[in-house]
Amino acid sequence: MARPPFFHGGSPPPPPPQPSSNPGQYIQQFLSNLLSQRGPSSVPYSEDSKWLIRQHLVTLTESYPSLAPKTALYTHADGRSSTLLQADGTVPILFHSATYNIPVVIWLLEPYPRRAPLVYVNPTRDMVIKRPHSFVDPSGIVSVPYLSNWVYPSSNLVDLARDLARHFARDPPLYSRRPPAPNPNPSFASLNDSVSGRPNQNPNPSFASSNSSVPGRPNPNPNPNPSFSALNNSPSGWPDPNPNPSFASLGNSVSVRPAIPPRSYPQSPYGSGGRQVGTEDLAEVFKRNAVNKLVESLSSDIGVLRKTREGEMEGVVSVQAALREREERIGRGMREMQGEKEALEHQLQMVSMNTDVLEGWLRENGGKVKNVDVDDAFECCDVLSKQMIECTAADLAIEDVVYALDKAVQEGSIAFGPYLRNVRLLSREQFFHRATNSKVRAAQMGAQISSMAARASQLAV
């Protein structure tokens, strides 16, 4: 059996017939099949809320059989369109001891049940929305306090329908706009166009024509059958308090209020072409669910495979980044080694040149230095240098003598008393030599600085 089509606007098709034996069973089957679907064709509700949505709709249809669940295409304010659930039908109200049916549409938007549904008054072609109304704006949107005070999870559709019936009974939002008929029998503009196909409990009440009867004038039609001459254009905007709510047209009636075209909403039944609710072929349902399950499983596998490949790609990218960093390090090391190699080659050239110079000097002076004293091998260039050499030599000689005395004391070759006296004398002499050496070094440093300053002044000139 083919799936029922979705209607995207225009007049709604006739309501599907329901079996008189147990219509609630078919509604439950329809909701179970719809909310159990997966994949792109599923309704856009969260998985943890679908069971609660089903319970709300089932309880609503049990309490109000005139409201039946459907699916329809809803267009949001931003232009998005999505297939959503709605409860379409009528809400019975008790007005002047007569029962009337107010056609409404309750849309369950995507955040439902965490957010309140969207309720519209859905007038037929011969009905007009009352202006002004406390809870219904001219576009048909209903804003009763129960919607503004919606609290999840305590709020539900049954209490919402009861609240709508209570407020609409105080101030009906619709009235008929059909012109008065000369027929003495009142016209019955029955509003019992419930999608469930069930007749109203009171088959006679209807929204009769608004005839703007003159106050205080008796009703020329004594028909006891009540009809709703709602909002008869009286100055107060309320129905006439006559206990017989059926008023035929009066000869001196004023013209009716201008007709307002009824608001049309996209509606979609859950069955069409004479098919009963939820009577699809089990094989088709099983096939559709199996396909959806396979699509879901394939999507899950593709997601896992994609995550795995993304992880592998991230690993390869990280390895590539590490290799690039190592390449940069190796390049820097190669450049540093190349610089060191060039510096070493330069130093090698300098050493080779110095070696050649020394070897040449040795070849020239090798025979001259055989009988030369070591002390006479070096000659000082000035008096300060000669004095520094003498002080340094005396200092090192005293250091050697003190070391020899230490060894002699340890071996017992000299007594401890003479050792201390000799060490004291040698230490005093060594101190004087070191002080002289420091003064000579300071004098040499000063002379060198003066020489450098003199050269700098000559270069400046």
TrEMBL record:
<dbReference type="Pfam" id="PF09454">
    <property type="entry name" value="Vps23_core"/>
</dbReference>
<dbReference type="GO" id="GO:0008333">
    <property type="term" value="P:endosome to lysosome transport"/>
</dbReference>
<dbReference type="GO" id="GO:0043130">
    <property type="term" value="F:ubiquitin binding"/>
</dbReference>
<feature type="region of interest" description="Disordered">
    <location>
        <begin position="1"/>
        <end position="24"/>
    </location>
</feature>
<comment type="similarity">
    <text>Belongs to the ubiquitin-conjugating enzyme family. UEV subfamily.</text>
</comment>
<protein>
    <recommendedName>
        <fullName>Protein ELC-like</fullName>
    </recommendedName>
</protein>
<dbReference type="Pfam" id="PF05743">
    <property type="entry name" value="UEV"/>
</dbReference>
<keyword id="KW-0175">Coiled coil</keyword>
<feature type="domain" description="SB">
    <location>
        <begin position="382"/>
        <end position="450"/>
    </location>
</feature>
<feature type="compositionally biased region" description="Polar residues">
    <location>
        <begin position="245"/>
        <end position="255"/>
    </location>
</feature>
<feature type="domain" description="UEV">
    <location>
        <begin position="34"/>
        <end position="178"/>
    </location>
</feature>
<dbReference type="GO" id="GO:0000813">
    <property type="term" value="C:ESCRT I complex"/>
</dbReference>
<dbReference type="InterPro" id="IPR017916">
    <property type="entry name" value="SB_dom"/>
</dbReference>
<dbReference type="InterPro" id="IPR008883">
    <property type="entry name" value="UEV_N"/>
</dbReference>
<dbReference type="InterPro" id="IPR016135">
    <property type="entry name" value="UBQ-conjugating_enzyme/RWD"/>
</dbReference>
<feature type="compositionally biased region" description="Low complexity">
    <location>
        <begin position="226"/>
        <end position="236"/>
    </location>
</feature>
<feature type="region of interest" description="Disordered">
    <location>
        <begin position="172"/>
        <end position="276"/>
    </location>
</feature>
<feature type="compositionally biased region" description="Low complexity">
    <location>
        <begin position="1"/>
        <end position="10"/>
    </location>
</feature>
<keyword id="KW-0653">Protein transport</keyword>
<dbReference type="InterPro" id="IPR037202">
    <property type="entry name" value="ESCRT_assembly_dom"/>
</dbReference>
<feature type="compositionally biased region" description="Pro residues">
    <location>
        <begin position="11"/>
        <end position="20"/>
    </location>
</feature>
<dbReference type="GO" id="GO:0015031">
    <property type="term" value="P:protein transport"/>
</dbReference>
<keyword id="KW-0813">Transport</keyword>
<dbReference type="InterPro" id="IPR052070">
    <property type="entry name" value="ESCRT-I_UEV_domain"/>
</dbReference>
<feature type="compositionally biased region" description="Low complexity">
    <location>
        <begin position="199"/>
        <end position="216"/>
    </location>
</feature>
<keyword id="KW-0967">Endosome</keyword>
